Amino acid sequence: MIKLVIFDLDGVLIDTRTLHFEVLNQALLEEDERFVISYQDHLLKFDGLSTTRKLDILEKERGLSEYRKESVWKRKQELTIPKLRETIAQDEKIRRIASKLKFDGIKVWVASNSIKESVEVCIESLGLTYLIDGYLSNSEVNNHKPHPEMYWHIMTQEGILPSETLIVEDSYIGRSAAVASGAN
User: Fold this and answer.
1) Strands (E), 70-138
2) β-pairing, 134-136 with 165-168?
3) How remote is the C-alpha of 81 from its chain's centroid?
4) Which of 39, 131, 42, 26 minimizes the C-alpha distance to 83?
5) Given phi > 0 = left and psi -120 to 50 = alpha, else beta, which region is 122?
6) Element spanning 66, H or E
């Protein structure tokens, strides 16, 4: 019997794939156009990864310096939060699903490879603040997805077994983490 449902955020509850792609590229372009990521590369290589991980790949493959990585990361966050606030609106379908799960006694969590502030803005904008039991961002774990730590942390906190947990993911990275966690 399922006692816990964990939703990914980006791509499952909201579609911000393009928003994150565009904002990261804007921050990269401000540094140097050779770091800009093509949409195809974004979908094939970077989808589902944290900004930090994406910048690590750009360091290795394109020579993005440590100083520039920090600058791009900060700029991307500055651009992202206002964009999320203006883009995301309450979603009644998602609110009804969360309400039904809660009514049925099922714990509801959100687990995202985004930073805590982005996750909070999205949950608030979607109108889910009081309909979920909690959330976990990449800044609250040592290992980001595809590592299953995020899911293990939530299951442990709730005292619920992987066999009693359903994880809803959209990206290869997220699905890999979900499978590795032992959950459904």
Assistant:
1) 107-111, 134-136
2) unpaired
3) 14
4) 26
5) alpha
6) helix 66-87
Continuous segment of H or E residues that includes residue 97: helix 92-103
What proportion of the chain, given as a percentage, has pLDDT over 70? 100
- Structure pTM? 0.85
- Report the b/e string of 104-131 with b at 16+ CB within 10 A: eebbbbbbbbbbeebbbbbbebbbbeeb
Question: Judging by DSSP bridges, how do beta strands 107-111 and 165-168 pair with one another?
Answer: unpaired
**pLDDT tens digit sequence for 63-112:** 999 999 999 999 999 999 999 999 999 999 999 999 999 999 999 999 99
Report the alpha-carbon distance of residue 39 to residue 1 in Å, rounded.
Answer: 40
Structure tokens at 9: 């955020």
Q: Which strand (E) or helix (H) includes residue 4? A: strand 4-8
Type of residue found at 129: T
User: Token pair of 83, please?
Assistant: 């964009």
Can you read off the two tokens belonging to residue 68?
């520039």
CA distance 178 to 102: 22
With beta carbons less than 8 A apart as the criterion, state whether 145 and 176 touch: yes
Nearest to 138 by CA among 56, 77, 52, 78: 52
Token duo for residue 85: 């606030």
